[in-house]
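FAQ: What does a multi-protein file look like?

Like this. Sequence, then tokens, then the next protein.
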Amino acid sequence: LAWRIAPGVPDDLAGDALRVRQILLNLLSNAIKFTEQGGIEVGVDLHPVIAGDGHAPAGNADNPRILISVRDTGVGLSRRQVKKLFQEFEQQSGSDHAQLTGTGLGLAISRSLARAMGGDILVESTERVGSTFTLALNLKSLLPDGSIVTAGDETEKPPPRRVLLASDRPIERRVIARTLSDVGDQPTEVAFFAAAEAIRAAQGREEPFDFIIIDGAAELAKARALLAQAGGDCGQSPAGIVMVDIAERANLDAFREAGFGRYLIRPVRHSALLEQVSEAGSILPVSRAPHKNASQDSQPRLDDNRRFVLIVEDNEINELLAVKVVERAGHEVLSVRNGREAIEHMQKASMGAARMPDSILMDIFMPGLDGLETTRRIKALFANSSCHAPKQICPPIIALTAQAFAEDHKRYLEAGLDDCLCKPFLPADLHEALNRSFAHSAQTCGTAA
């Protein structure tokens, strides 16, 4: 996964950041889901108009047109599939794609959101090659005269730096090279096995590298040898930078001892990259005591008493996020993958054979029984529970939905749901929704008593 922001893109624009994030996360989720090999590139560009796009107006000085593209090397789409792609619940078909389903609704919602903001989503795809989805938006410039100012316009640029990129991840390598070229540096990108030859060629031109960036998956001894070779007879090695995944930071001690004094965490950020190829960049001692995350002290707790939350969510990523947020708040969680499992648990709970949840997080769009029908059946279970003593109250049910429009939320509330939480949600949003549900539950139970 790699991303870049092209030169000329304004730093400050007015728009609906939450919806842009929601659309982008949907496009990224689909790209990851349908890409087994290769990678994904996200690009942000400034462009006046896309040829053939008749829906969104062209950009201008007051409303520059921003293009956010998500390019993958996945299964790709046929022309027929592209035409039907934005229909609700449309899914891939055919033996090659039998295991890859569930993209249609999210894309339909994403395009609706883009068009509601005066933009659109466009797609280019080739079967077995990959797809590019582009979100086109005309966002308002925050400067009063409509002019566009970008980062670095008024700062003095450093002299060009010669940078060797030695990695076997071509997409990431290409994006980093373009980012460096954008600011006037001179990158050379090669596969790791070709790095030694690239160093010899640069020394032959008397243009030695100032920096060498390698993948943290490289063999440590070979990485050390590259730095030594790049130092040449003078023994002055270039600054070494290693790229690692966030879970691999424990390996930084070994690379630091091998001479790589700087590091980058994937996905590589534009600002972090430029800092590390400057005099300011340096690696921190990773053998020190673990850094205490400030958020651990400030993590909000929903209540002093532990509560029990039932999560009904078929998407593994959304389920994981919700479970972690609730657990970190000090509460217990049971997660199920579909409506039938949720109803079975609630039936057992109503008879005392399982724990009754204090709140239910209900995904709206699930295969089989969707969230609305599941909610109706759970509500009916409690409406018909007069035979139980004492009479039981249905716990609050919160809709988890990608539908962002007010009319959709109104429809869910009318269908019996007690609250709505729009995906993708922030942890603070989930905390707030659960707080409301717990307060409502306590009030309802007190009234019933």
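And here is the next protein:
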Amino acid sequence: TKTAVLAYSNSNIDLFSENSFYNIPDLKLKTVTGSKTINHIFTENGLAYLSTDIGIVVINLAKREIKESYTFSMNNQLLPVTGVTTTENEIFAATPKGLYSIGKQNPAIQDFSSWNKLDTTRNFISIAASQNRVFVTARDPPH
């Protein structure tokens, strides 16, 4: 879409395309308990996946609107998402409490309990994919 996604520390979002800015204030204006920090932005096929402290926010860049959001919750606490990437058929999410995946076409994608728990023991801080392979980095546990 030739659109740049700009995220600010106050959770405001701007899209920049064709020499114009378009503001999406939805996350900034959302009332939540805790942080709405945007930790990472991943784009693919006209969608921007924003990894935030309240889950994943998906923006349709052509329509300039929030398409959907996925809230990650564990023990009644919001689980921050530190990064998102995709392969041909799956979405992967890195969190401080593990690595999760789900099929892109899964009708229950918004239900965190439907996501596959790939690793729930490590604090993942970064994620990327290349040639249908996923790469993650994790913090070393304290000694």
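Q: Is there any per-entry metadata?
A: Some entries carry free-text notes. For the entry above: The CA atoms of residues 123 and 140 lie 8 Å apart.
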